[in-house]
Amino acid sequence: MRVQVIDHPLVAHKVSVLRDKSTPSPVFRQLTDELVTLLAYEATREVKTVEIQVETPVAMTKGIAFAKPTPLVVPILRAGLGMLEGMTRLVPTAEVGFLGMARNEETLDIITYAERLPSDLTGRQVFVLDPMLATGGTLIESIKFLFDRGAADVTCICLIAAPEGLARLEQSYGGNDKVHLILGALDEKLDENAYIVPGLGDAGDRLYGVAH
Ligand SMILES: O=P(O)(O)OC[C@H]1O[C@H](OP(=O)(O)OP(=O)(O)O)[C@H](O)[C@@H]1O
Ligand SMILES: O=c1cc[nH]c(=O)[nH]1
Ligand SMILES: [Mg+2]
User: Fold this and answer.
1) 53 is in which domain, residue-wise?
2) Which of 104, 132, 133 to mutate to test the pocket of ligand 1 (most atoms within 8 A of CB)?
3) The domain that contains 188 carries what CATH number?
4) How many domains does the chain have?
5) What ipTM describes this predicted complex?
């Protein structure tokens, strides 16, 4: 498993504003979108391409197109939905599949309440979008789902991760070179409720305006 924490001032600045509890939902959504485009730049470095011919107004030249089958982008509902548009703007030919998963906040068990993915993912490059990697339960479940369907490789883009979740993913996929993690920040720890510290609170609630 390859893990990259993107060390860049543009990323760090946007993460800082996301963390601020006074940042309202519309700004939070906008920043999430912008942050994804920055992280996607690195996450798609190994996306499969084919060479094509392009005619400029001056001459023929070589260009590239995304190879087929096109990448599959999978936002994990609900919070991952806030990352979808930023990703598809950069990979417009990508197909989109959906996984709906929620943590039972008492037991931390993962409930999969929705699944709309192609039944056969053989040979597909998959990009999973989920802002928070806390205990790692949700991502482990998602990655397993995708490999069970035949995915060739799985790249997860997360805005913030906790060391505890990363360690759990290492246990499950450490030896698997088909799993990549792209992170906007690696935080200190989880608190007693398995929330990331310092984190940004509940990403789904902050994106979609649930007041506390
Ligand atoms: O690493 P884990 O401990 O599994 O936690 C991370 C998950 O928790 C959040 O989703 P949540 O379950 O709150 O659902 P939501 O997106 O509907 O808010 C987050 O978006 C991740 O999917
Ligand atoms: O800190 C956390 C942990 C899980 N889910 C979130 O949205 N935030
Ligand atoms: Mg939530």
Assistant:
1) 2-208
2) 132
3) 3.40.50.2020
4) 1
5) 0.97
